[in-house]
C-alpha cells in the first residue's frame, strides 16, 4: 500500500469531543453516519468518544461539517 501521498486527514480533538453534548438523547456521534467511507467509529458504544481510522480517511471533511462542537480538525503530515 502506498500512503506517501497521504498528507491530510481528519483528527478528533478529544478535549472538545463530548458525545453527550452533541447528541444528549442517544449519545451517538453524528459524524459517524456522515462519513460515507465509514472510517469513524464509536468502538466503545454510545456516549463514548469516536475514533478515526486515519489511514483510510479520504479527506472529504464531511465529518467536520457534521460535528456541532467543532471537535474534528484537519491534520497535516509531511511537507
Ligand atoms: S466528534 Fe463531534 S459529533 Fe462526534 S461525538 Fe465528538 S463532539 Fe460529537
Ligand atoms: S474527512 Fe471524510 S473520510 Fe475522513 S473521517 Fe471525515 S468524513 Fe470520513
Automatic annotation (TrEMBL):
Keywords: Iron, Iron-sulfur, Metal-binding
Domain (4Fe-4S ferredoxin-type): residue spans on this chain: 48-77
One Pfam family, short name: Fer4
Domain of life: Bacteria
Database matches in InterPro entries: 4Fe4S_Fe-S-bd (IPR017896), 4Fe4S_Fe_S_CS (IPR017900)
Molecular function, one GO term: iron-sulfur cluster binding
Protein name per its UniProtKB record: 4Fe-4S ferredoxin-type domain-containing protein
Organism: Desulfosarcina widdelii
